[in-house]
Amino acid sequence: MPEIKANPAALEASANAIDANADAIQRELMTANDLLASLRRTFIGQRAESFFRQYDAAFEEMRSLTALIHNLAEELRQSARALRAADQG
To answer: Which residue of 22, 48, 53, 72 is surrounded by the most CB atoms within 10 Å?
Structure first.
């Protein structure tokens, strides 16, 4: 039977680092969003409308990306648990 080379503790540590990075990205997104929200009141006209339409779409995509990153971290944790259970069982 082949030997499993993955280390559950290392997978969990990687998952924690990935989560921390996703949280940092989320905080930066919210900071940028707050800044741009203040500009919405002063930046007006067709160019502004076009910019904010594009920004709003991109912002939602970026928020979805951070959720995806958190999901990947959770999958790593699940893999770590499965490996640990297989090793003990």
So the answer is: 22
